[in-house]
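Notebook p. 47: complex prediction with zinc ion.
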Amino acid sequence: MSLSSTYRFCPQCTRPLTVMPVGGRDRLCCDDARCGFVLWDNPVPVVAAVVEHEGKIILARNVAWPRHFYALITGFLEAGESPEIGVQREVEEELGLEPLGANFIGLYDFFRKNQLLIAYHVPARGTVKLNEELDDWKHVAFDDVVYWPAGTGYALRDWLQRQGYSPREGESPNIRS
Ligand SMILES: [Zn+2]
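Predicted complex, structure tokens below:
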């Protein structure tokens, strides 16, 4: 039994959760049938931005990541927020840039984190000023991009290919840390 959740207690009534088959799968459920809580554990949507700035791509490093790994800007949506608005808000918050629109690239699965990535190309202008979630960033020329074999990397690859570039695949961010 390998349920990915870290939940152990019912968020509705605080009784322990137990594994039961519901809808053809084993799921964590409240052991009190009168409560009836089921942890569906559906994937969470996450927006991701391929940021274009001064004719280059911006890749940034999260404070929690390995030193060599730079990737896209990502974030969760706020309640009631459209993905197009949310991805531009994340670019503004995390990089301090002025977003100039959001062009849809595609949807990408990210099973390891139970997320669905909604990827956009976001042109932006201004001076980069990182927020507390990031500790470094770099400009990468379109010709020099090496994408990584995971959801956000595939979004970057697909956008570049549509612009006529042929990025090569590099190391997975999860192999080395
Ligand atoms: Zn319960």
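Notes: The mean pLDDT is 92. The pocket of zinc ion is lined by residues 10, 12-13, 15, 30, 32, 35, 37 (CB under 6 Å).
Next step: compare against the earlier run before touching the bench.
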